[in-house]
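Handoff note, outgoing to incoming analyst
You'll be picking up this chain. Sequence as last confirmed:
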Amino acid sequence: MLPTTALRKTTLTAAILATAGFISIPAAFAQAPAPATPPATSAGPAPAATNIPDTKLDATAAAVKGISAVKTDYQQKVAQAPETDKERLASEANNAMTKAVTDQGLSVAEYTNIITVAQNDPSVHEKLVQRLKK
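Most recent structure output, in case you need it:
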């Protein structure tokens, strides 16, 4: 069994991996490939950990939760949909996940940058884990 800290990191890592590529739905969701997500660096460098305000971390955690819910919902819909509807559903899922981010006051680029920092900075990672528990 994993120690509590390792379990938290595994949980956040799974959440981050589940949402980090949220703009492009896996090919299993659609006949045509979804448009590629631009690299996070195209929106500028990732913010320094000390420069991420608590409000942005709160918004990111809320966005992770929203994206996770959308992905779960649409994975079920796509799995049960006829092939002719899968591309439309993938597009709807992309739009819903983008909305889950922008509804929190973040741009997709900001969200992606904060997730990248959290993956690489243990202190930001832990702050995000704490917010995800709420």
